[in-house]
Amino acid sequence: MNFSESLEKLTTLVTGDLADLRQLLVALLIGLVILVFFIYLSRWIKKLVRNRLDKRTEDSLLSSFIAGSIRLVILLFGITLVLRFLGLTGIVSGILAGAGITAFIIGFALKDIGENFLAGILLAFKRPFKIGDLVEIQGLSGKVRALNLRDTQIKTLDGKDVFLPNASIIKSPLINYTIDGYLSYGFTVGLGYGCDYRKAQELIIHTLKGVAGVLSGQKESSALVTDMGDSHLLVRVTYWVNTYNKKYPDVLVRSQAILAVLEALEDAGFPLPGNIIELKGPTPVGGESVGK
């Protein structure tokens, strides 16, 4: 049915006698019931699909995106079915064409929506990040909260919720600090000249092994001399943490590691210059430094 036929039918029903008006109200009521049915049906299927996918895969990002896409398809099918039932399919296309909106939608809205939707599909299947990963995109750092059909939600470390269009993420460099769960932190400490440098290195490594949350084995800590200052020797200390270990948050482990090393060196009598200890590692929100 084209636009003129649909408009003529709607006009006849509205301006007709009482029987025609009743027919219109009944049709609208049935159409509303069908629409509500598909809304609840889409929600139920989305929940069902996500639960099934969550049992078969550990990637909640992918299961959420697929379930959301299926719900959208069901909703669009329901809306189309309601319009066909009411015989008004020609009105929608006719209004868009008559007002010149079709070209606008195709040229702008659909381009943006389609581009972000396709980018979301690529992100969901390529999986450069998962829910909870610490990422940096376009200068913004935070943890991934959700991947939607149009955008990706990121929670910055200072509490802001940022929604980035999926297409912009595909086109921009992305840094994932926790893609495998392991993260390296480090800091530089100065040792006064004349002390036993090798013993200080061994003490630092031994101390880090006793800090809860610091990894060992293949992710061994290190204490390497990097440079010679005016009054001290610079030692770069590095260690690894598992960001998926919620019992020992990486921020807490970093604090304990620095304090443990400083206290161990002081107790052993090693001279520590009174300059700034430089911290090295992913510090997305601002910088950090610790002074003595």
Provide keyphrases for this structure.
single chain; 292 residues; alpha+beta; SH3 type barrels; Alpha-Beta Plaits; 5-stranded antiparallel beta sheet; membrane
How large is the share of residues in beta strands?
A: 15-25%
Number of helices: 8
Predict the CATH topology of the largest domain.
Alpha-Beta Plaits
Unreliable runs, pLDDT <50, ≥5 residues?
101-106, 283-292
Give the CATH level 1 class of the largest domain.
Answer: Alpha Beta
Shape: elongated
Characterize the largest beta sheet: strand count, sense, and whether it forms a barrel: 5 strands, antiparallel
Separation of the first and last Cα atoms: 81 Å
What is the number of independent domains? 3
Task: State the secondary-structure class.
Answer: alpha+beta
Biggest sheet strand line-up = 4-3-2-1-5
Mean pLDDT: 76
Number of strands: 10
Q: Which bin fits the share of residues in helices?
A: 40-55%
Q: Judging by the overall fold, what is the CATH architecture of the largest domain? A: 2-Layer Sandwich
Helix and strand succession?
A: HHHHHEEEEHEEHEEHEE
Radius of gyration, CA atoms, in whole angstroms: 30 Å
Organism: Cyclobacterium jeungdonense
Keywords: Cell membrane, Membrane, Transmembrane, Transmembrane helix
Main location: membrane
Subcellular location: Cell membrane
